[in-house]
Amino acid sequence: MWRAGDRSSTIEDVEDASAEPWDLVRAAQSGDTDAFGALYDRYVDVVFRYVLFRVSDRALAEDVTSETFLRALRSIGSISYQGRDVGAWFVTIARNIVFDHVKSSRYRLEVTTAEPADNREVTSGPEQEVLTDAANAELLRCVAQLGDDQRECITLRFIQGLSVAETAAKMGRNEGAVKALQHRAVRRLAQLLPNWLR
Q: Under the phi-then-psi rule, with left for phi > 0, alpha for psi from -120 to 50, and beta for the rest, what region is 19?
């Protein structure tokens, strides 16, 4: 996984309370690798949770998250301000990678081979898809058991992929309140989820 290096004092200036993520994007576009590292640190958890919810496989989610930031780094020069949080761009890249993965998995299922070992590998695809669907359905069932505010927070943050700031704006709360609400909701979900899904 791509990891940011040590932060210099200049990046601390960029990351102060008044700095916006788009300032980091502009700095990264100018070749500041620390600025991209700060973007990584800020959004890696959001992207990972989004991907994990979609694929229900921790190792695959880690791979997709790494690939997301590698692609973002390669194309950082092409992004411009669009009136949304930068996190939406990272989530869009992740969503496209997940879609490509699902598409290639389906393609592999259609390939016919004469090798029994290959057939065993191919038939594991639908089983994994069924397990993923079951896990997602169970997760959504547990989310539905949360209180109204917690359910809305989880839906906005992890299902719709909004940032803390965007979620706070939609819920009419400050970012600190959203972070606290999210923390309580995740803890409650951990209690509600069956053992096989933890």
A: beta
Per-residue pLDDT tens over the stretch 61-114: 888 988 898 888 888 888 887 777 888 899 999 999 988 887 776 544 444 444
- Give the SS3 label for residue 48: helix
Closest CA to 132 of 57, 48, 64: 57
Q: What is the pLDDT of residues 143-171, one digit of tens each?
A: 888 888 988 888 888 777 778 888 888 88
Q: Distance between CA 62 and CA 191 in Å, rounded? A: 24
| Residues 177, 168 contacting (CB under 8 angstroms) | yes
Taken as a whole, the chain contains a residue count of: 198
What does the alpha-carbon distance between residue 76 and residue 72 come to, in Å, rounded to a whole number?
Answer: 6
Alpha carbon distance 86, 72 (integer Å): 11
